[in-house]
Amino acid sequence: MSTPDNELLEPFERLLGEISATTRLRDIERGGSVEPVWEPLLESGFLDALTATEHGGAGLDFAQIGALLQAAGRRLLPVPFGETLVARALLAGAGIAPPDRPIVLVTRSAENAWQRAVPLAKVAGYALIETDEQLFLRTLPQSSLRDVGIAASLAADVHWPSTAEVASAPSPLPAGAFRSTTAAVHAAHIAGAAEQVLKLTVAHAGQRVQFGKPIAQAQAIQQQLAVMAEHTVMARMAAQIGCSGGFPPSAATAAVAKLVCSSAVPQLTAIAHAVHGAIGISEEHDLQLFVRRLHEWRLADGPESYWALRLGTQYLQGNCSSSIDFAREMRQTGDTTC
Amino acid sequence: MFESLTLSALPAEDESLRNPVRALVRDLLGERPLAQRARSWMGFDPSFSQALGKAGYLGLTLPTRYGGGGRGPFARFVVIEEMLRVGAPVAAHCIADRQSAPLILNYGTEAQRAAYLPRIARGEIFFCIGMSEPGAGSDLASVRSRAVRSGEDWILNGSKIWTTYAHHDQYMIALVRTSGASGDRRAGLSQLIVDLSAPGIRIRPITDLTGDQHFCEVFFDDVRLGPDALVGAEGAGWDQVIAELAFERSGPERIYSSVTLLDAWISHLRRAGRFSDSSARLAGSFLAQLATLRELSLAVTASLARGESPVLEASVVKDLGTTFEQSIPTCIADDLGAHPDEPPDRELYLTLMYLTHIAPSFSLRGGTREILRGIIARGLGLR
Q1: Strand ranges (DSSP E) for chain A?
Q2: Residue B248 appears among annotated catalytic residues
Q3: Which of the four, A177, A248, B80, B210, has the lowest number of CB atoms within 10 Å?
Q4: Amino acid A5: pLDDT
């Protein structure tokens, strides 16, 4: 990671270390107040990292934001950090003062009034709703939220017609940008959390003694952990690609990021559970905090098959004759004409 | 963990090589059958290699004083990527270009550098890798080929196996025992440059399951080599080989071995007008993996460019990359077979089956999957 990223990342990680311990996460998941996390985060200014400097933000590019998003994933930050940061940048750009509460991003769909299992919607105060031409800032009254019914989950179904309008503005984004954006955000969260799960699992393998020695010495375990490390590396690179082409991410870069990261989730978590044994299934062990969130992020804004279909259909309908040229162009321009 | 495997940009001056290379390869090779292009890394064509050398595309990482390009690993990445993109026959020069030349540059004497490097850069001499033996595959430290001093010279006895293109190459860099016994493991090993025309060398090609002949068995029977055969320090062979393997395991050839099939399958789908969900998903999945693996390969290239020896990182990328390469023929066979009313043409079928049969080698050559995962486990602190 280059130096400018580290200059941002270190204070952010320090902040996360102070506010986002797993004990606090557990408390919030049981209905405790989100304020001990939210207030210091709001005060820190990191929520305005993407907001343009002329609107009082830090004006970072999306690639730098990506490093923060991975860090938020590593610490399972229990507020919608990436979504709020994007919403605040868009609102400030539209001349609307951002509210001081967490914001989730919602795409208004003609077919479906519900957006299912929006991560961290339970702790959000507002939704920024995208239509083809407009952005709507709306509050999230209790009537607009439906508990997903999963133990300790902070996700909620959002019923967008029940939200209450605060402000609106013409959308500066291409159609569908919210989905690509949340896909890139959640891909980065997956990559961060994957790293932490790998660490937990390696540490557990080093401590757990069976047959008179740590199971980390068993070749069968070593090979599995190596595979886990490979998935982690792959996810991290894909997440970086998702944030590499500027804001908003193109459908192509978002697809690469979300597809690779989502498909890593079942493989990573399966190995983590296999190595942890029964303790990993227990509520008491931290592994479940990560695993539950990883599965939630995998499905949010479409898992691997959703993005594979979109990316593959787009490519097949084009006339690019070289998959290498596709990859190269996407990296160079952040999008593809393929 | 694995911090250096991060997004890096291909420098513009290296990227600028791409169009001229692409044009040259098109001029030199023209249209070739698909199944021939699928043999890119296995395609031996000395005149093509010499033409590349003449145009300055070999030895790009070597200093200009040795006839090299005076550039870096990124320039080489661009050239190799262009070769693999169209399935150019690179087998003649690729081993010397990738690892023998850097080995001689890093560990060789000035005389050795002057003797070999300019000819490698011109595409005049080709090298093979003398590592595996009948009794030493993954357990490389158990090599039994032995060189002993005879005055100033070396006398070499033993054999090597699975040596790709030994029957066409002029030189081998062989890992042999120069002291101790095989129980001494990593101690007492050295690397020797073996002139394959020397008396006492017998080379027997081995036919592979596709009918091709690329790898060989090489027998050494009292082969006399000059004092200048030793490359690097006597007894330092193991460490040198490990450094060499970082080059061997890191390149784009570890992700692109099936790319000609991937592109041909997509052309087939377009011709058939079939954009079914299952085929589109498969295509999307391949593209996303390829795009990610390419950046990982570039990250290892960046590490080489910083002068590091990314043994661990290269192992990660090679295992991921070869798994991807191997999945391509497997999944495409299933997709094509699921649509019997749209049979692939003969060329696509031949290419599919060639890659299906040869793909197991992708995760054997240059270190097996299991060995690589052992290296990664060590990187995780598990061993």
Answers
A1: 103-107, 114-118, 126-130, 134-139, 145-147, 156-159, 164-170, 209-210, 213-214
A2: yes
A3: B210
A4: 64
